[in-house]
């Protein structure tokens, strides 16, 4: 296994090593954001709009201010005066990005929109005070669906937008019209997906501690991206007027030259990426809202002038699934309030708040046309897609990014000769849309569902249609028609062939008739996909030119004077087992046990800057990659020192189980502590690092693709619509595996959320945009009782890259909805066109009951 | 999701509790297991000014037999009743219902009588009361009264109990020979979309009495007399079950919500009714 070179003789990489996080978490020793001393801080609660769409006529907070225990009440007007609006981010041509503040002052745009902030000595008192705030709302008609948003007379969610369509993008690859003309058949379908919400076990939370001497903000947060939160707080909290900021910057020679040097280095390193970026995104935004440029100038000036940026620390985090990547309006509000008051404040979101606006996803629809020949050859795909983005775009990743992912991903691992996508993002009066585990996943659902619809129309086997059209290693084109380079060693076809071989067709016939005899129906469904995890470099430039700026990971390894080995990652783990897998990688490189390696994460003062943190399936390929490279570099430096000390040739040095020795003479060995002590003595160092290696890692092996095929067996009770899943198989290939147990866990967790999406979870807004699912009585997350055994087959293609582990966290959720709805379609003999299938809907589809 | 302010009382005797209820009336709520009341307060959907916690009143935590009927006191938790041989023997329908109540952790705190007094139309135990002709025993500082289950439930979350009254116990009715509780819920442990408590008495292979009490289909649990009549005097065979089922779907007019349409509930009411007969006839354990 060249990709997992080992020096320890212990070989942790590739082993099903027990998670080192579990003991701490299971015995209650984890340190989550709410685990601090509640008496040392003030507690915040937000007053939230009960209306989906309304004008705020007046607000009276006097009674709330008078309540015992209330320290301060901020109206939107007060807090917004001390914060910048959220600026547009990832601007793209054809997109309007509404600008908004941390609280809503004149208009509310969804149920739960925050309008005021109470700071009190306890959360309970803060909630009592909320009830004393008198807001006079004038209710407006609300937009509750994509359909309603597109009506000619629809109320406008954003006044400065042309209508409710905020983004409208069309891309075409190959000659779509010609492909439809040439094909034997055109098959059409309209497919819809319901709204879901990322539901981490731990809600969002932030604790801002203010240094009484210098006002420095120390922020503990549930963030997936600590550095981005730090940057956002620095950018959006206003310390002083813009002119003074600029003046301060100009006068501060040291800061000026440091900035100049950093900018020069950045431009030199990224020249081609910067010149590739499309300026039309900014131009169209400025045309739509002229205040954009002054806002960006103000933010820039503030960032330059700020002598002190907050420190952000993330400890243990109880999940996020993407929802804790964006910086929320609440976090900025709490940061501003603490800064203004000079007092420490914590906000721990409750579950109702989390369901209202903690992050929602995937309410999308697709009108699809497929050009196909009678033998099942897929010729072209033509899709008109719409995303219900809710009211406020997530920051920094607006929902339009999903459309950009679709543009690249949609043909999937199949040989469509031509492809066109029109994708629109539509504003409605709902909670904000954030990335959710495989944010683009509905393209796989749509495509895999459509392939089954095609197979049914042509009376072909869905497995055969996939096998016929999947891109195979021997005939794989160098790139997808949408741009990204493909990799013939990492092909979805391999997983598809393996999975199809696991379906015993004779047995299936038998199972179906047995089910029928019991008044049930049984079906099997397949889904096949590839995902950029993190993808080849041109995956990102295919999405948006210049965006491969983000495709690197910084990391650092150090040997401390006391012999401790410390690895610094810019990732922000929240359930992905980073600590375990990074220890495995580093321990192998250093030739020590996992206990000898300390992983440092989550503290912006100690780790290197990144806009991303954990997300985008980067933790395995890039995060572990930089751990490997820096560990190896420090290990090699240690070997050099040891060679000197042992009067040996460095090439003869071996390190096994922490014993540094000349090959064949382990008895005359030394330890990392000995080497560290020698270096410390030589350099007169008593604490801190004696050896450091810091690397910007860009290597992603052969294209960075992960591939998988899912097969689901579904049994439906035709009397009650109750569903069981007698078997579920995932055949996946994510390259060389660091820890099979961790990969299994990621795959199964993703599949469980996919099962949730199809059979249990629907975030239900009524036509007036009132949220019906505000507790777990109504938003149903599957429990262990509803999740079957999930068989995972690892194909584990070994490659010769330095660190060829691929991301695997998102895939389970990408494949499962498609495999499950295909299985339901097979069971009922009906082509399902919606993703969410509660029992009543299954009985309607089966013709057992009529619609209400 | 923090409680609004309230005054907490922990009386040591029934009399003390009744005095508190007499004093505070509409402003007071009785706290037993708290599995329904506390979430309602945390969501600030209810804001009682006084909480009368009856958890320390030892005499309420008893299961006994009175006049051949099983009496369950107001502080008997679901889990205790579930494990009680007396309950299994004297109130097999209650025993059959208990495993369906929430999850095990909920049953460890929640109380049988609390669930009945709470009168959730989708809950199992009010239906068990109707099916067994249970008697609800109430006391206030000034009087005691006993109300038949059929007269107790007034609507969703409402009963005829006055605000100064405490439901001290429930006496479950005479068992039949066969019992079953069947429900259809979205997930294991959820409130039922539709469910039924079924108690039959069968003598010489003929049904002599039948009780079918449905939950989740109306503003209270409901018995369907037409369906019961379709079983009485029959052998509870396929024909009888078919006409019983037809009566169920004919009579019930459930509402739809985000979890189940009205048509689904009506259809599945017939399904669970039929299944409950099969289960009652074939479940030796439930047949007591």
Mean pLDDT across the residues of chain A is 94
What would you give as the CATH superfamily of the largest domain in chain A? Aldehyde oxidase/xanthine dehydrogenase, a/b hammerhead
Assign the structural class of chain B, choosing from mainly alpha, mainly beta, alpha/beta, alpha+beta, or little secondary structure. alpha+beta
Low-confidence parts of chain B: none
In the CATH hierarchy, what is the architecture of the largest domain in chain A at level 2?
Alpha-Beta Complex
Under CATH at level 1, the class of the largest domain in chain A stands as Alpha Beta
**Interface with most residues:** A-B, 36 and 27 residues
Question: Helical percent range of chain A?
Answer: 25-40%
Largest sheet of chain B: 5 strands, antiparallel
Percentage of helical residues of chain B? Answer: 25-40%
Q: Describe the biggest sheet of chain A? A: 7 strands, mixed
Strand order of the largest sheet of chain B: 4-5-10-6-7
Gyration radius over CA of chain B: 19 Å
What is the strand content of chain A? 15-25%
Q: What do we call the CATH topology of the largest domain in chain A? A: Aldehyde Oxidoreductase, domain 3
Query: How many domain modules of chain A?
Result: 3
Number of helical stretches of at least 4 residues of chain A: 26
Q: How would you classify the quaternary structure?
A: heterodimer
Keywords:
heterodimer, A: 852 residues, Aldehyde Oxidoreductase, domain 3, Aldehyde Oxidoreductase, domain 4, five-stranded mixed beta sheet, 27 strands, B: 288 residues, alpha+beta, five-stranded antiparallel beta sheet, 36% helix, 25% strand
Description:
- In chain A, a hairpin with a 5-residue loop joins strand 25 and strand 26 (723-733).
- Chain A has 852 residues and is α+β, with helices and mostly antiparallel strands.
- In chain A, helix 8 crosses helix 12 (292-305).
- Chain A has a 7-stranded mixed sheet with strand order 3-5-1-13-10-11-12, with helices on both faces. Chain A has a 5-stranded mixed sheet with strand order 7-17-16-15-8. In chain A, strands 18-25-26-27 form a 4-stranded mixed sheet, sandwiched between helices.
- Chain A has 3 domains: 22-30 and 553-697, Aldehyde Oxidoreductase, domain 4 (2-Layer Sandwich); 33-140 and 203-317 and 324-357, Aldehyde oxidase/xanthine dehydrogenase, a/b hammerhead (Aldehyde Oxidoreductase, domain 3), CATH 3.90.1170.50; 437-532 and 704-845, Aldehyde Oxidoreductase, domain 4, CATH 3.30.365.10.
- Chain A contains 26 helices and 27 strands.
- Chain B has a 5-stranded antiparallel sheet. A 4-stranded antiparallel sheet of chain B has the order 11-12-13-14, with helices on both faces.
- In chain B, strand 6 (135-139) and strand 7 form a beta hairpin.
- In chain B, helix 10 packs antiparallel against helix 11 (238-251) and helix 11 runs antiparallel to helix 12.
- The longest helix of chain B is centred in the last third of the chain and has 21 residues, at 262-282.
- At the A-B interface, helix 4 and helix 26 of A face helix 12 of B.
């Amino acid at each position: 296994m060249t990709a997992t070179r080992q020096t320890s003789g212990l070989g942790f990489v590739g082993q099903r090593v027990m998670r080192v996080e579990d003991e701490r978490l299971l015995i209650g020793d984890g340190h989550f954001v709410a685990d601090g001393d509640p008496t040392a801080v003030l507690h915040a609660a937000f007053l939230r709009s009960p209306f989906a769409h309304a004008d705020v006529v007046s607000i009276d907070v006097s009674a709330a201010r008078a309540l015992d225990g209330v320290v301060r009440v901020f109206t939107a007007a007060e807090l917004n005066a001390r914060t910048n609006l959220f600026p547009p981010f990832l601007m793209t041509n054809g997109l309007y990005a509404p600008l908004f503040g941390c609280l809503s002052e004149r208009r509310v745009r969804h149920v739960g929109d925050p309008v005021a902030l109470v700071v009190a000595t306890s959360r309970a008192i803060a909630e009592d005070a909320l009830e004393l705030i008198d807001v006079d709302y004038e209710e407006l008609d609300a937009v509750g669906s994509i359909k309603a948003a597109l009506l000619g007379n629809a109320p406008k969610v954003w006044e400065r937008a042309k209508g409710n369509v905020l983004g409208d993008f069309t891309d075409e690859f190959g000659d779509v019209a010609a492909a439809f003309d040439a094909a034997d058949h055109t098959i059409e379908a309209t497919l819809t997906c319901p709204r879901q919400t990322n539901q981490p076990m731990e809600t969002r939370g932030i604790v801002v501690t203010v240094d009484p001497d210098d006002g420095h903000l120390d922020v503990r947060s549930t963030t997936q991206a600590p550095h981005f939160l730090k940057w956002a707080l620095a950018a959006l909290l206003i310390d002083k007027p813009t002119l003074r900021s600029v003046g301060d910057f100009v006068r501060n020679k040291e800061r000026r030259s440091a900035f100049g040097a950093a900018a020069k280095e950045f431009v030199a390193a990224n020249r081609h990426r910067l010149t590739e970026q499309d300026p039309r995104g900014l131009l169209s935004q400025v045309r739509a809202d002229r205040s954009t440029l002054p806002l960006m100038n103000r933010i820039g000036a503030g960032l330059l002038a700020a002598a002190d940026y907050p420190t952000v620390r993330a400890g243990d985090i109880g999940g996020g699934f993407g929802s804790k990547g964006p910086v929320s309006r609440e976090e900025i509000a709490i940061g501003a309030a603490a800064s203004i008051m000079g007092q420490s404040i914590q906000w721990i979101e409750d579950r109702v708040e989390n369901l209202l606006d903690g992050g929602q996803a995937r309410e999308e629809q697709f009108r699809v046309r497929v050009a196909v020949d009678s033998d099942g050859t897929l010729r072209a795909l033509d899709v008109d897609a719409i995303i219900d983005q809710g009211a406020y775009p997530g920051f920094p990743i607006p929902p339009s990014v999903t459309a950009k992912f679709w543009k690249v991903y949609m043909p999937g691992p199949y040989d469509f000769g031509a492809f066109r996508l029109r994708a629109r993002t539509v504003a409605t009066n709902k909670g904000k849309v954030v990335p959710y585990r495989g944010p683009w996943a509905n393209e796989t659902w749509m495509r895999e569902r459509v392939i089954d619809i095609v197979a049914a129309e042509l009376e072909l086997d869905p497995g055969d249609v996939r096998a016929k059209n999947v891109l195979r290693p021997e005939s794989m084109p160098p790139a997808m028609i949408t741009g990204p380079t493909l990799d013939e060693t990492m092909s979805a076809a391999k997983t598809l062939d393996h999975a199809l071989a696991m379906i015993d067709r004779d047995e299936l016939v038998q199972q179906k008739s047995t089910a029928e005899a019991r008044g049930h129906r049984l079906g099997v469904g397949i889904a096949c996909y590839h995902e950029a995890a993190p993808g080849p470099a041109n995956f990102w430039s295919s999405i948006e030119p210049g965006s491969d700026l983000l495709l690197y990971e910084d990391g650092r390894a150090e040997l401390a004077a006391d012999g401790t080995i410390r690895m610094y990652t810019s990732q922000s783990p929240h359930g992905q087992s980073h600590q375990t897998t990074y220890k495995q990688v580093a321990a192998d490189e250093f030739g020590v046990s996992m206990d000898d390696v300390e992983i440092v994460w989550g503290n912006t003062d100690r780790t290197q800057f990144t806009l991303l943190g954990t997300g985008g399936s980067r933790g395995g390929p890039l995060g572990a990659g930089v751990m490997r490279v820096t560990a190896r570099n420090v290990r090699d430096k240690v070997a050099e020192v040891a060679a000197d000390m042992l009067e040996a040739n460095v090439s003869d040095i071996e390190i096994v189980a922490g014993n540094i020795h000349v090959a064949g003479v382990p008895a005359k060995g030394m330890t990392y502590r000995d080497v560290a002590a020698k270096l410390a003595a030589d350099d007169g160092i008593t604490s801190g690092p004696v050896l450091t290696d810091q690397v910007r890692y860009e290597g992603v092996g052969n294209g960075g693709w992960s591939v998988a095929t899912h097969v689901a067996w579904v049994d439906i009770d035709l009397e009650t619509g109750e569903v069981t899943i007698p078997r579920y198989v995932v055949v996946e290939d994510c390259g060389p595996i660091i820890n099979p147990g961790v990969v299994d866990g990621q795959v199964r967790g993703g599949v469980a959320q996919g099962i949730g999406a199809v059979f249990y979870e629907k975030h239900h807004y009524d036509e007036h945009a009132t949220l019906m699912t505000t507790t777990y009585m109504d938003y149903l997350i599957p429990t262990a009782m509803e999740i079957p055994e999930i068989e995972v087959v690892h194909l584990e293609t070994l490659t010769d890259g330095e660190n060829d582990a691929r991301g695997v966290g998102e895939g389970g959720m990408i494949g499962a909805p498609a495999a499950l709805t295909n299985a339901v379609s097979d069971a009922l003999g009906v082509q399902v066109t919606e993703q969410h299938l509660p029992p009543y809907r299954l009985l309607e589809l089966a013709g057992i009951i009529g619609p209400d | 999701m923090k409680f609004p302010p309230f005054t907490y009382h922990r009386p040591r005797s029934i009399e003390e509790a009744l005095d508190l209820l007499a004093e505070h009336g509409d402003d007071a709520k009785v706290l037993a297991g708290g599995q329904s009341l506390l979430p309602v307060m945390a969501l600030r959907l209810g804001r009682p000014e006084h909480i009368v916690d009856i958890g320390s009143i030892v005499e309420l935590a008893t299961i006994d037999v009175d006049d051949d009927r099983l009496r369950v006191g107001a502080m008997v938790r679901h889990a205790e009743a579930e494990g009680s041989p007396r309950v299994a023997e004297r109130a097999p329908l209650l025993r059959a219902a208990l495993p369906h109540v929430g999850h095990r952790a909920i049953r460890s705190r929640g109380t049988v009588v609390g669930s009945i007094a709470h009168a959730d139309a989708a809950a199992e135990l009010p239906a068990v009361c109707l099916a067994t002709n249970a008697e609800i025993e109430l006391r206030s500082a000034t009087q005691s009264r006993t109300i038949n289950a059929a007269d107790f439930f007034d609507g969703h979350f409402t009963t005829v109990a006055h605000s100064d009254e405490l439901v001290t116990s429930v006496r479950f009715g005479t068992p039949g020979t066969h019992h079953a509780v069947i429900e259809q819920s979205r997930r294991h442990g959820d409130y039922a979309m539709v469910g039924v408590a079924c108690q039959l008495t069968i003598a010489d292979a003929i049904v002599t009495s039948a009780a079918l009490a449905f939950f989740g289909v109306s503003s209270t649990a409901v018995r369907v007399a037409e369906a019961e009549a379709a079983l009485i005097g029959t052998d509870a065979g396929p024909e009888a079950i078919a006409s019983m089922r037809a009566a169920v779907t004919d009579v019930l007019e459930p509402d739809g919500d985000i979890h189940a349409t009205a048509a689904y509930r009506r259809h599945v009411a017939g399904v669970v009714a039929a299944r409950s007969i099969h289960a009652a006839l074939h479940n030796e354990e439930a047949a007591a």
